[in-house]
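User: Hey, my collaborator sent me this sequence without any context and asked if I could get a structure. I don't really work with proteins. Can you help?
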Amino acid sequence: MSRGLVLRLAGPLQSWGETAAFPHRDTAALPTRSALIGMFAAAQGRTREQALDPYPELPGTPSHHDLVFTLRIDRPGTPHRDFQTAGGGRPHGTGLRTAAGGYRSQDKSTLVTYRDYLAGAVFTAAVQGPPPLLQHIADTLTQPRFSPYLGRRNCLPDEPLIIHTDIPDPVAQLRTAVPLSLQRPPDPAATHIPVTFVHEHPPAPGDVPHRESPSQPSDFAAQSRTHLLRPLWQTTESLPTALYAGPQPIKTLTDYILKDISCP
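Assistant: No problem. I've predicted the 3D structure and written it out in structure-token form, which is a compact way to encode the shape of the chain:
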């Protein structure tokens, strides 16, 4: 059992690029490790070049490698595609460049681009790792240097972003206590409801990964951005319908936030 943070990742739009490349910017079906680490680094005021550096000012010199994420999918959201254009209407020599270094011709100066989003999604994340690093993350998310966003700068998070900053066994809290922001109320006759979890470690010894995600950041610098594959495990777990937060979950979430759950 490890102490950790609980975050609520919710907003009108989210976009968690996984294989994004211009002109098509995709979104994964859930928040990526890379995007969450990037959110923490931005809140701390770190540049892209510094984002993955260890923290020598903290006891034990922890790093992002020490963080473990577990996601609960409260609402998967609805896929939404936004069409945009770039370069149109500019005089020749000031618009979009070609791969060879020149400029696109006037009749091809407008480039259609695609931006994929998740509309109305809600994810609840347990973040575990060294306590000094978790406290630093909590402090800087509370008073961020740069505002946090849900994958892209136009995807602002709803409040509350932070559910709890230091609780015992946050994964167990996702299963038993943290209110569920469901798409619709559960069946009145039901006592439990199936909810999807995504894990970065095998839920049980010998479990085979559900998939691999290119979301382990190796370099955030603009000219050398690289990511490594990371295995993910998915489970469907039966949670009590009593966790349902209601059609307006803010009161239920606030009540939970104000509870003293600092001790096991």
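In plain terms: The mean pLDDT is 90. You can pass these tokens on to your collaborator as they are.
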